[in-house]
Amino acid sequence: MKGGAFYFRSEYDSALDYFDSSFSLYEAAGNLKAVSSKYGNMGNIYTDQGDYTKGIDSYMRSLKAHEKNGYRRGMATQLNNIGIVNKDLGDNKEAMRYLEEALVIHKELNYEIGQADCYLNMAEIHIREGNQDLAIPLLDQCAEIYKTIEDTQGKALMYNFYGLIDFKVKEYDKELANYSQALSLQREMGDDQYMANSMVEIGRVYMELGK
What is the dihedral of CA 169, 91, 154, 126, to 10 degrees? Predict the structure, then answer.
């Protein structure tokens, strides 16, 4: 719990120290679910710090612990995380492989938020590769999920991706509407990083419009 508190305060060194301290206790108790959770948290810290090698290693350790424990939702979460790191490293093919594997499990479990996360990451890859026609159906599936399930962060990201597609095809009015929707949700969450990103994109639109 202390490690988690330090993580949310972005005091990563202290968080890692406490997570490390918990491992021997959890392993002695045979609590594989807790062990895999801590590895997942450590993976989040390393990737936040830009240490993708340690991030993937931690996610892989978490994945293996979940496999031993038979916890399939945890497996899907870590497969998704590994896919995200590969996406950030620019290895889109490897990223898509992990994301598709995660999506299969989320569908088996009927876990819709997990499905939406996979769709968002897969859509981002298609947008990067210039395949907007492949990205739009994935975002539309997210929109259907968000009609019945509240995920403010995911919904904001979805609007950002719609906006990015609108920018590429020069539909600036639609883009402004989508980024404004995203910005409103991000402001509601107090998510400064993504608020800044949305403001930059809105600024780009006004530059294109000569304003």
Answer: 30
